[in-house]
Every structure is written in structure tokens, then in C-alpha cells.
Amino acid sequence: MTPKLQPDPNLSFYNRNAEQLAQQYDSKPFTEVHQSWSYHLADIFVALAANSSINLLATQANAIAYSKQLQILDIGAGTGRDAKYLAELANTQQQVTVYAVEPATELAAIGKQHTKDLAVIWLEDTLPELKQVTATNIKFDLILLSAVWMHIPSAERLTALTQLSQLLAPQGKLIITLRHGPSGDERVMHSVSIQELALLSQQLGLSIIDSISAESDKLGRAEVSWDTVVIQFSTTVTAKATVQFDANSLKTAEQAK
User: Fold this and answer.
1) 232, 164 Cβ separation under 8 angstroms
2) How high is the pLDDT of residue 243?
3) Which SS3 state, helix, strand or coil, does residue 115 take?
4) What is the value of pTM for the model shown?
């Protein structure tokens, strides 16, 4: 007899509380929740580049080649708040397609309504395998895991990060937020750390290019705090550093004339 599979307590919680969670998630805009790292988006989105003086210099030095067709992956997309914001950054210079991955079907149903008029494709998929996403054969310019990593057991994290690295475009960025603090309900959450992610990244030729520690919880939970890491391929980091050095040298030479 085939043993009966136990329901995933996390999926059960998210599906059962979808409406209440939607009110919580949507009470805070993308720009507030992700304010600490969102300036990195100016490397990717034409719509945001004009607001970044740092990226203006880099663009002039040909450090950034903006893609005309962006492919974005939002894993743990919930009710679509982040997918919606990212899809709305499309303009006449740059098309944006967001793949929103959400295994909790009740949350996804709400998200589909929020993004129905946008280029957002919803997939019922899960880490560490991400079989449906892998089947698309797409390399993504941005991969976002917001409030997901703590649900992945430590024994599965190398497999998960390996899969994410295989989905990441050569110049792409992987954003992972790390939740610290008790679950407070039946959801299963595991310990996370920037140090563990750094060690896993090194094994896969990835580098953490930015990290933000001990951020307060945007929903006001005193016992919860967050870290965020921004990850790229190590070869990309080296190449960008070289170009940035050349750009600064050019600027200094121009000023000396």
C-alpha cells in the first residue's frame, strides 16, 4: 500500500488564510517593503535608470546593456503585489514578462486577479526543483525570493540555489530575503543566515554583491527581523568592477584636461 502523504502545513496555512494574508501583504507597497535594496533595479529596468546618478555614469561607460525584453521570476509570489509592481515597469523601450510562482492556490487566485491585465504568467511550482519553471528554458534577468528561504530545509538549500543559478541570466540578479524570529503559527520555518548563503554561493560561482542586515519588520512585528542579499555570478561581479574602474579613470582624465 502506498503511504498517504501528509499535507504541507505551510501550504495549508497559506490557503486557509489567503484572504487575511492578502490584506496584510497588500497593506504595504513594494517600494516600502523592498526599499533597502530596490536601487539595484536601476541596473535592470530602463524605467528606473533615469533616477539613479550612479547608474547614469555606468551606462555612459557601457557597463549596462539594457535588455529590450526582460524576463523576471517571482518565487513565492503570494497575492501578486511584487509581480504587479515589476510588470508595471514595462515601457515603450522595454517589455517585461513576470513569471509568478505560487504553490498556494488560494493566494495565487487572488494574485491572478490583481495582475490579470499585465504580462504576468502564474505557475504552481515549488523549490527546490522548480520543474515547471525549468521547462520554460528561460534565463531570468531578475529572480526574487521574498519571504521564502526560511521555508526551505537546510538539507535542500544547495539543491535550491543550484536550480536558481541555472535559471539566472549571466548578468542577472538574485534577491533573497531572510526572515528571523519565531513562526507564531503552524507554519514551519528554519533558521537562516547570510553566512550560510555566502558559503553556498561560493560553491556555485556566485557572489553576494550587497547585503542588508537586521531590518525591522514592515508589518510591525517586534519579534521579526529581516536580512536581504543580492547575488550575481562571480564573473559578472569581476567584469563590472573592471568597467567601473575604467569609467572612473575616464572621469578623472576628463577632469584633468
Assistant:
1) no
2) 40
3) coil
4) 0.86
